[in-house]
Amino acid sequence: MIPSQWHEYPSLLLQLNALSKTRDELREHNLYEAYGMRPSNDLGQPTDEVHRARQSDGTWNDLEDPHMGAKGTGFGRNVPLSMTVTDVKRLLKPDPRVISRKLMARDDFKPAGIINALAAAWLQFENHNWFFHGDGVADKTIDIPLSA
Fold first, then answer.
1. Are 97 and 49 in contact (CB under 8 A)?
2. Exposure of 6 by Cβ count < 10 A (0-12 exposed, 13-18 middle, 19+ buried)?
3. Is 109 helix (H, G, I), strand (E, B) or coil?
4. Alpha-carbon distances of 48 from 52, 59, 66, 103, rounded to whole Å
5. 54-112 residue pLDDT tens
6. Where are the beta strands (DSSP E) in the chain?
């Protein structure tokens, strides 16, 4: 009997192989990219350095697709962009600023208890991915007005 899930395989090697096949199938059949999402410049062959360490701009995380996940590239989608609709009337409902103030504002110090410095550094790193810091494309931003 062939396992139906990657984690049901009896060895780590077989599990990794199953995960790799699943990833390839998803990339082939379930991932859509908008035009111009990835740079067209050729980065050439991977150097010894990219085999040893991650690059600060995110290039070469995938040796077969060096632009995947790099700075300035977009994310693939599970639905073609042409089939999506932006609900402009309800885009700011609920108001992101109200959500931010209710969920993210501190009223007093709340210690994290079990989180160490590495976790704090990782959260800081991820915050730069999650929030816009002004280096995006100006005509693709959404300005959220301040209430009175």
1. no
2. middle
3. coil
4. 7, 14, 14, 45
5. 888 889 988 888 888 888 887 777 787 788 888 888 888 888 888 888 887 878 887 77
6. none
